[in-house]
Design goal:
Blueprint (H helix, E strand, L loop, with lengths): L10 H12 L10 H5 L11 H9 L2 H5 L3 H4 L5 H5 L6 H16 L3 H6 L6 H23 L13 H4 L2 H30 L15 H13 L3 H5 L5 H38 L8 H12 L9 H25 L10 H26 L2 H20 L8 H15 L5
C-alpha cells in the first residue's frame, strides 16, 4: 500500500509565478487537452498537464526541478487549443524564467532581470564602465574624438583592445562561463529520474547524447518543425538568428586569435621573423590579415557582414511574430522583450558603428561605438539570467533527458 505524502503548497510561489507570465494558470480544469495537443511531449507522464496541476498546488521544488519544462519549445499549440485560455505554454516559459533566477548566482541579477523597474541599473553598469574608459583615454591622448594621422576614425585609438576592451570582455566571458558551469551542475543534480529506464541495446554515453542533441536538434532546429508546419516562420527566425550569431562568433574568434597569437607576436619580433619557424610565420601572417579595421573585401569581414544581415532578418521575423501574437492565447513578458531589445541594440549599433566609421563622421561614430559596447556587455554579462540562457540550460536538459531515455522517439 502506497504511503501518504504531505503536500505543502507555497502560495507565495504561485503569486510569483503569476507575476512572471503564469497569471492564467488557475483557469486550468485538468482536461488534458494540452498534453494531447503537444506533438513533442513524451507518451509517459506527458507535459504540460501535470505542470499545470503542480503550479495550482504551489509545488515549487517539484516544478523547478522538473526536466520537462526545458523540453517544451513554446510553440503555442497547447495554448491555442486550451478551452479555458489557461495558456500552458506561457506557464512553462514562466517556470523557465524563474529557474534562471534560481540557477545563476548572484541571484540579485536574476531579480533585476525579472522586471523593467531595474532596467536603468542593468544599463547603468556598462554605461558607467565604458564612460570611465572613454574619459581616461581622452585625457591620455588629448582628444575625446581622435583621428589617425591620415584623418581616419579608428575605434582602437579611443578603446584599445589590448588594455581596455579585451580585458573587460575576457573577464566578463570567463565569469559568464563560470556562472553557467555552476548553473548547469545545479540543474543536472536537481533532476530526478522517473523510475527505471529500460534500454534495448547499449546505453549511450553523456558525450554521445550531447553530440546527438547539438547535431540533431540545436543545429537543425528540428523541434521547431516538429511543433507544427504553421510555425515555420518561428523556426526560420530562430535559425537565421542562431547562425548569424554563429558567424559573428567565428569572426570574433578568428580576430582574437589573429591579434593575440599573430599580430602581437609580429610586433614582438619587430619584423625579423625570417628565421622563425613556419608555424610562427603563419600566425604572424594571419595576424596581419585579421588586424582591424579590415577591408570590406576581407573574407573575415564579409563573414561578419553576413552575420549582421542574418541578425537583422531573424530579429525582424521574431519581432513581427511577437507583436502579432494573440494575447488571448499567448502573452509576452519582460524577459521576451529584453532579449529582443538587447539583440536589436547590438545589431543596429554594430552596423551603425561600421557605417559611421566608413563615413568618417567622428562625432557620431564614437558615441555609436560606445553604445555598441554597452549593448554587447548587456547581452553577454547578463546572459545566464536572460532568456538566451536557455541555449545552455536547454541543451543540458535535453542531453540529460536523452541520456535517461526521456525523449520523443
Amino acid at each position: 500500500m502506497a504511503q501518504p505524502r504531505r503536500i505543502e503548497p507555497d502560495l507565495q510561489f504561485v503569486k510569483e509565478l503569476q507575476a512572471v507570465g503564469g497569471e492564467s494558470l488557475k483557469k486550468c480544469y485538468q482536461c488534458a487537452t494540452c498534453s494531447v495537443a503537444c506533438p513533442i511531449s513524451p507518451s509517459t507522464n506527458p507535459y504540460p498537464r501535470k505542470e499545470m496541476l503542480w503550479a495550482q498546488w504551489g509545488l515549487k521544488d517539484r516544478l523547478l526541478n522538473d526536466v520537462d519544462i526545458w523540453l517544451c519549445y513554446n510553440c503555442g499549440a497547447c495554448s491555442d487549443l486550451c478551452p479555458r485560455g489557461a495558456k500552458p505554454g506561457d506557464l512553462l516559459a514562466a517556470l523557465r524564467n524563474m529557474a534562471y533566477q534560481k540557477l545563476s548566482a548572484p541571484n540579485i541579477i536574476g531579480k533585476w532581470m525579472s522586471s523593467a523597474t531595474y532596467l536603468p541599473v542593468l544599463i547603468g553598469i556598462p554605461a558607467l564602465l565604458f564612460l570611465v574608459v572613454w574619459f581616461i583615454r581622452a585625457q591620455i591622448i588629448g582628444s575625446a574624438f581622435p583621428l589617425t594621422k591620415e584623418g581616419k576614425v579608428v575605434y582602437g585609438l579611443l578603446f584599445p583592445g589590448d588594455f581596455t576592451i579585451d580585458p573587460i570582455f575576457v573577464t566578463t566571458f570567463t565569469l559568464m562561463m563560470l556562472v553557467f558551469f555552476c548553473g548547469v551542475k545545479s540543474l543536472i543534480s536537481s533532476f530526478k529520474a522517473e523510475g527505471e529506464i529500460l534500454f534495448l541495446g547499449k546505453k549511450k554515453s553523456w558525450i554521445a547524447c550531447l553530440i546527438d542533441v547539438v547535431m540533431g536538434e540545436i543545429m537543425t532546429h528540428k523541434k521547431f518543425q516538429d511543433c507544427g508546419a504553421d510555425k515555420a516562420d518561428r523556426k526560420i527566425g530562430h535559425m537565421v538568428l542562431f547562425y548569424g550569431f554563429l558567424c559573428l562568433a567565428v569572426v570574433t574568434g578568428v580576430v582574437a586569435v589573429g591579434h593575440w597569437a599573430g599580430y602581437n607576436i609580429g610586433g614582438w619580433l619587430g619584423g625579423n621573423e625570417a628565421n622563425a619557424p613556419n608555424w610562427l610565420k603563419t600566425l604572424v601572417a594571419i595576424g596581419h590579415v585579421t588586424h582591424t579595421p579590415m577591408a570590406q573585401t576581407n573574407m573575415v569581414k564579409i563573414l561578419g557582414n553576413i552575420g549582421a544581415v542574418c541578425l537583422l532578418i531573424g530579429l525582424s521575423l521574431l519581432t513581427f511574430r511577437r507583436v502579432t501574437l494573440n494575447p488571448k492565447r499567448s502573452s509576452s513578458t519582460f524577459y521576451d522583450w529584453y532579449l529582443l531589445g538587447v539583440i536589436w541594440a547590438v545589431t543596429l549599433t554594430g552596423i551603425g558603428s561600421e557605417l559611421l566609421r566608413l563615413a568618417n563622421v567622428k562625432y557620431l561614430a564614437y558615441p555609436m561605438y560606445y553604445l555598441h559596447l554597452v549593448a554587447v556587455f548587456m547581452l553577454f554579462a547578463y546572459l545566464p539570467w536572460s532568456k538566451l540562457g536557455h541555449l545552455v540550460y536547454r541543451t543540458a536538459a535535453l542531453t540529460y533527458a536523452r541520456y535517461m531515455g526521456r525523449k520523443v522517439l
